[in-house]
Amino acid sequence: MIEKVERFYKHIKDDAVKMDYKLVLCHNDVYELNFIYDSDGKVYLVGWEYAGLNYVANDIGSIICRYDFNDEQIERYIKAYVGHDLTEKERRSYIPISAYYWFCWGLYTGSVGEDDSFFFFTSYRNLVRFIDVALENYE
What does the longest C-alpha to C-alpha distance in the chain come to? Predict the structure, then answer.
């Protein structure tokens, strides 16, 4: 699995150069518990302790990889985020990379006695679900 992720990450980096994607400030921990709402219904993203430079698609992949969304839900979410039908290049998924990050995080936290099965199991399932398809899109 590590070899597949390394191959895939090289493709993502190559795509970023070709499409002139820049590293930007990303939250890197986007999921339900990091959103709060005020009394006026405004939504805020909190919990910025993992923030850092990354490709913007990482935040998209971060939320998708940690839930068991079906393909239709994923497509609807991504389309709402980017505001248009996805091009073939945009369709190349960052989900496997985010899933790998959170799978590794789950392994680490489990090794130090914390229960992060929420991250571990769902991220692993999504890594397995998407990595081969993502590689096929490139190779």
Answer: 49
| Helix H or strand E encompassing 45 | strand 43-45
Q: What is the pLDDT along the chain (139 residues), one digit of tens a residue?
A: 999 999 999 998 898 888 888 899 999 988 888 999 999 999 999 999 999 999 878 888 888 888 889 989 988 888 888 788 777 666 667 789 889 998 998 888 888 888 766 678 899 999 999 999 899 988 8
**Consecutive H or E run containing 120:** helix 117-138
Q: Which residues contact 127 (CB under 8 A, 6 or more apart)?
A: 1, 5, 65, 96, 99, 100, 103
Tokens 């940690």, residue located: 66
Nearest Cα neighbor of 93 from 55, 48, 41, 51 is 55
Contact 103, 123 (CB under 8 A): yes
Structure tokens at 71: 């393909």
Identity (one letter) of the amino acid at 139?
A: E
